């Protein structure tokens, strides 16, 4: 079975500062990992995904994440926060099987201070 | 493109009432799923389906039923609503094409209140 733990339900950074959102996973087989973003009163949209190719994955809006097997982590970063990045972010895990369910973490709400 | 369409967007029920949340997708996706979103708990998987006629339970299936008679539709049924089922519900679908690397496409959500 797979699971995801997101450390920190709320992260606040200043505009222009580094954004770091933490995600650790548990999986008995090699995982596929995703970060999704949810803006207020909307559904979720994909930021980026890791599917066993390059361990450093670049996504939309300047976000990237690095898969570290030894640490079972997939942390999301952005060098310089923008006000428009304020949203809730979810890490998700699944496996290679097309029948595998997709499990989400509890989410991290990102606030940006002017 | 319509994508994933959920109805209704808002619903208020009384305890014990039944209702069905509808979900339809026009992308010919094999995989469809229902999640509920509650503050501080993220998205929890209720039920999912990998094709017509095939459904399976997720993390929190109790109190919900699903069926998948067509590729396009995946309704979620509450047989006897309880206040604990007050939540925002999301339907999501994904193509499979022999792998599991595709992104989930989400509907806009259905906000359900049970009094």
Textual characterization of the structure:
- The complex is a heterodimer of chains A (114) and B (115).
- Chain A is mainly beta.
- Chain A has strands spanning 3-7, 10-14, 19-26, 31-38, 44-50, 56-58, 64-68, 73-78, 87-95, 103-104, 108-113.
- In chain A, strands 2, 4, 5, 9, 10 and 11 form a six-stranded mixed β-sheet that branches.
- In chain A, a hairpin with a 7-residue loop joins strand 9 (87-95) and strand 10 (103-104).
- Chain A is globular, with a radius of gyration of 14 Å.
- Chain B is an all-beta fold.
- Chain B is globular.
- In chain B, a hairpin with a 2-residue loop joins strand 5 (42-51) and strand 6 (54-57).
- Classes of the chains: A mainly beta (114), B mainly beta (115).
- The A-B interface holds A 6, 9, 32, 34, 36, 42-46, 49, 51, 90, 92, 94-107 and B 4, 30-31, 33, 35, 40-45, 48, 50, 56, 58-59, 90, 92, 94, 96-101, 103-104, 106-109.
List the SSEs and their pairings.
The complex is a heterodimer of chains A (114) and B (115).
Chain A lengths: L2 E5 L2 E5 L4 E8 L4 E8 L5 E7 L5 E3 L5 E5 L4 E6 L8 E9 L7 E2 L3 E6 L1
Chain B lengths: L3 E4 L2 E4 L5 E7 L5 E8 L3 E10 L2 E4 L6 E3 L9 E3 L8 E8 L10 E2 L3 E5 L1
Parallel strand pairs in B: 2-11
Antiparallel strand pairs in B: 1-3, 3-8, 4-5, 4-9, 5-6, 7-8, 9-10, 9-11
- Please report which band the strand proportion of chain B falls in: under 5%, 5-15%, 15-25%, 25-35%, 35-45% or over 45%: over 45%
Give the N-to-C terminal Cα separation of chain B: 36 Å
Portion of residues in beta strands of chain A equals over 45%
Listing every helix as H and every strand as E from the N terminus to the C terminus, the arrangement of chain A reads EEEEEEEEEEE
Secondary structure: helix percent of chain A: under 10%
Gyration radius from CA atoms of chain A, angstroms: 14 Å
């Amino acid at each position: 079975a797979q699971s995801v733990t997101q450390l920190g339900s709320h992260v606040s950074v200043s505009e222009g500062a580094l954004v770091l959102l933490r995600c650790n996973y548990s999986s008995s087989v090699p995982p596929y990992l995703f970060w999704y973003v949810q803006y207020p009163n909307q559904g979720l949209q994909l930021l980026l995904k890791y599917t066993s190719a390059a361990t450093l994955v670049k996504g939309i809006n300047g976000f990237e994440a690095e898969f570290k097997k030894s640490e079972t982590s997939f942390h999301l970063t952005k060098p310089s926060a923008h006000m428009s990045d304020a949203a809730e972010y979810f890490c998700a895990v699944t496996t290679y099987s097309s029948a595998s369910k997709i499990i989400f973490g509890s989410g991290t709400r990102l606030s940006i201070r002017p | 493109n319509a994508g994933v369409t959920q109805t209704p967007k808002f619903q208020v029920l009384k305890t014990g009432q039944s209702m069905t949340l509808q979900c339809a997708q026009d992308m010919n996706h094999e995989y469809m799923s229902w999640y509920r979103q509650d503050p501080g708990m993220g998205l929890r998987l209720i039920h999912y389906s990998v094709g017509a006629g095939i459904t399976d339970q997720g993390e929190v299936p109790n109190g919900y039923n699903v069926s998948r008679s067509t590729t396009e539709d995946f309704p979620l049924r509450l047989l006897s609503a309880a206040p604990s089922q007050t939540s925002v519900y999301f339907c999501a679908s994904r193509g499979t094409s022999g792998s599991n690397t595709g992104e989930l496409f989400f509907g806009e959500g259905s906000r359900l209140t049970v009094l």
